[in-house]
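Exercise 7.
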Amino acid sequence: NGWSVLAGAGVIAGNYLLMMSDHIFSAPILSGLARQDAADRGVTLAVDVRTTDPLIDPDDATWVSTGPDGFIRAIGKTIAQYDAVDCGAFLATQELPAAIAAAIAAGKSGSLSDGMQYLADRGRAATMDIGEGWWLDVDDPRAHALAEAQAPRELSEIYAAALS
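Solution. The predicted structure, written as tokens, is:
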């Protein structure tokens, strides 16, 4: 997914919302994330501190360790200590593709997490806690069933706006 960011970022001027295509988000998460632009960050990641929520697949999750300032200290699928889970939605600047390219140049695989860790190591990767926001990573039949059952209720504000 880092290589996809590199391919797409070249045609985008300015900041952009980046979302994993198999994740669903309630509107307040994305609208809140869009307002997170600040000079002290190269990327802002939506995170959920409800790490034991049954909607999260712990075997597939990307975990996040944050500092007291809300900035990322470590990110990855196998980090030992974490206090949040990556929701798969980012407010990115052009620093993100540059970080992915730098991580590749340093011998990393080019994953999005490689670029995020590169920015985190430089104090440029912030987080936004989604609070009670609803999101779901739809990776398997169990998550698909949850999406079908919960999305109409959780995304009702989107449906209502589309119908008006």
